[in-house]
Amino acid sequence: MGHSNIWNAHPKNYGPGSRACRVCGNPHAIIRKYGLMCCRQCFRSNAKEIGFIKHDILNCFISILILAWDGELCLCGV
Question: Which domains does the chain have, with CATH numbers?
Fold first, then answer.
């Protein structure tokens, strides 16, 4: 038994070597959250098609402040 036979003797069912991108097959930088199982490059290119939207943090913060100022949003925790 040579080195390659011993090294690949067991199937990889767990760990980083067992996962690859379902789009391109890349085994690196896999996003597993929400069952995506795609690499970050494929996620960035397909995010809008999947249904993800990018929020602008500053605009969200300003809209929360406006709602709080008008009294429509209670930030006091009561």
Answer: 3-53 (4.10.830.10)
